[in-house]
Predict the structure.
Amino acid sequence: MPRVGKSVRLFASCLIVITVLSVFLISSFAARQPPAPFADGTSQTSQSPAANTPPAAATAPPRTNAPAASTPSAPAAQGYVGAETCKTCHAKIYDGWANTPHWQTTLDTKGGPSHQGCEGCHGPGAEHVAGGGDVSKIFTFKNASTKEINARCMTCHASGAQHMNAINSLHTQNNVSCISCHSPHNATTKDFLLVKKQPELCYSCHLQQKSQFEMPFHHRVNEGLVKCSDCHNPHGTAGPKQVRTSSTQDQVCFTCHTDKQGPFVFEHEPVKIEGCQSCHIPHGGANPHMLRVSNVNLLCLQCHTNSAPNGKTGGAPGTPSFHSQQTFFKACTLCHIQIHGSNFDPTYFK
Ligand code: HEC
Ligand code: HEC
Ligand code: HEC
Ligand code: HEC
Ligand code: HEC
Ligand code: HEC
Ligand code: HEC
Ligand code: HEC
Ligand code: HEC
Ligand code: HEC
């Protein structure tokens, strides 16, 4: 008797598991049916389809049809007509688009029609087509808000280190949307679909920075050797000033100036603690080596005071008394050459 009870219970629980599983399967097939995310003009940032589709689950098609509906061969299903249909009236735009990386979206069978072709950005087009090009029946970017625009682009571009801070970036907060910098149809650059190439793109809003790169000593950004986006992530960063970086902003400098990274046997404390910017202006300035101070000695003497020659001042040892006390005594770095740190000498002579 207890044996029978056990197998009945086992059977019952199997039944429950099977029921739950099949409900889950059916609803996930239904959820895969792209839920016409943009039809109401609102944004769809969530990648979780279930959240958008409680009603769709009820009208789930028979299981056998489901896989077919999510392949590109049946795009007509949920108000999507496919890029080839758009081409019949927008041939020029279509041809341009077909030469951009966005053409690849047509290969995305997993995302289905809502992630393919023109409609990946403009939303379902069936009503627009049926209306002979009714512009009120298709999403246009013209009068859309930054939030709406970004949400659309980020249905596909939200992941990865490059974009993970885009939602709250300073650019987003200040209504600089994806299409302030990118143009899917009218890009002027070969790479990255930019509206203008760098640095002109950035200068169109950051004019003040232009003069910094025209200073006598500067990173050669205007000359095209270094790009703004080498140091900044225009899509936002976790740290300040959208610099690609650690808290001291130095990580970005080491991508090119690897020799300054160390670790050194004898570190020069400010390089590690306060960072490159305690001595250098990152964009450019009037002083050689982009130093903050016109004279190397003045820079050193800010910390290594000679008023207390052998005493310690704020962690930095005072300039020893056997050094000439004249401020314009030979450049300190004439002898203390390895000023960023040394593996051989505690006073950075070599
Ligand atoms: C039957 C022809 C026809 C087809 C097919 C068609 N369109 Fe249009 N579309 C038009 C016309 C006409 C206009 C309005 C005139 C214009 O601005 O070029 C238009 C305008 C637009 C606009 C701009 C709206 C605006 O406010 O400026 C977008 C975006 C657009 N179509 C996208 C699409 C997409 C995406 C498809 C495919 C899903 C598509 N169209 C298919 C005829 C068509
Ligand atoms: C990656 C997103 C994206 C894709 C894919 C896309 N568009 Fe657009 N479309 C835009 C944006 C953004 C604009 C606003 C103008 C601009 O920034 O270039 C636009 C504008 C338009 C316009 C208005 C006219 C204009 O140039 O301003 C039409 C028409 C249009 N798109 C049709 C299409 C058609 C047809 C396709 C497919 C061949 C397509 N779009 C694919 C994003 C996209
Ligand atoms: C339906 C998915 C989808 C949407 C929506 C989408 N993209 Fe893309 N985008 C792609 C794919 C796929 C690529 C090509 C592969 C890659 O570079 O990741 C791409 C590439 C890009 C590139 C890189 C081009 C290059 O030369 O490397 C830029 C820039 C870009 N998209 C901007 C946008 C902007 C701006 C929007 C919104 C107006 C947008 N995308 C909307 C799928 C999408
Ligand atoms: C302030 C200008 C600016 C804004 C705003 C901006 N981008 Fe970019 N984007 C760039 C530049 C510049 C590059 C080239 C980056 C480089 O050189 O590494 C780029 C590169 C890209 C790339 C290709 C590189 C990669 O690693 O994926 C994609 C995709 C992209 N942007 C999408 C977007 C999307 C989506 C948005 C909106 C959320 C956006 N961008 C907003 C300037 C911008
Ligand atoms: C060599 C790396 C580097 C390059 C190249 C670079 N920046 Fe910067 N930028 C920085 C650092 C580091 C800061 C942070 C300065 C600070 O915190 O005081 C900064 C700060 C900024 C700021 C904030 C305001 C300010 O001046 O402190 C803006 C805006 C800016 N950069 C724009 C640009 C633009 C535009 C370009 C290209 C024309 C560019 N940057 C190129 C490293 C760079
Ligand atoms: C359409 C205008 C526009 C364009 C184009 C643009 N920016 Fe910005 N940027 C802004 C605005 C607005 C802010 C926020 C206000 C501010 O701090 O200046 C900002 C902020 C920044 C900051 C942070 C400044 C700070 O004080 O923290 C950096 C860095 C920056 N942008 C770099 C760039 C780079 C690099 C490019 C080119 C790839 C670029 N921007 C293109 C408008 C723009
Ligand atoms: C994309 C590569 C790159 C990055 C990132 C970079 N630099 Fe540079 N830096 C260079 C190049 C290239 C030069 C050589 C300049 C020249 O000859 O025009 C240089 C030169 C310098 C110089 C010496 C100038 C001279 O006159 O001797 C200093 C100082 C400097 N960088 C500091 C920094 C700091 C600080 C950072 C981080 C905020 C940084 N760099 C990030 C490429 C880079
Ligand atoms: C304590 C001040 C100080 C700090 C901090 C500092 N530097 Fe320097 N840096 C100097 C001085 C002084 C010179 C000029 C050396 C000379 O006169 O020969 C210099 C020169 C340079 C040069 C050009 C000459 C060379 O050695 O290649 C580069 C590049 C440079 N620094 C990069 C950096 C980077 C990157 C950082 C951050 C890791 C950094 N500096 C931090 C003081 C500093
Ligand atoms: C922002 C402050 C600061 C600046 C600017 C600075 N230093 Fe230093 N320096 C320090 C600190 C802090 C130490 C570490 C003291 C310790 O480890 O006990 C140090 C250590 C040294 C030492 C090694 C002392 C020893 O025997 O341990 C020398 C030599 C030195 N600095 C030279 C210079 C020269 C030359 C310059 C100018 C190019 C300079 N420093 C700029 C703060 C600074
Ligand atoms: C002519 C070469 C020379 C010049 C130029 C020079 N120093 Fe020195 N410095 C030395 C010597 C030698 C020592 C002692 C090294 C030792 O003790 O092993 C030293 C030691 C130091 C120390 C370490 C003191 C301690 O207590 O450990 C500091 C700090 C220092 N110098 C700063 C400076 C500053 C700042 C300048 C520029 C105003 C400068 N030096 C210019 C040769 C020089």
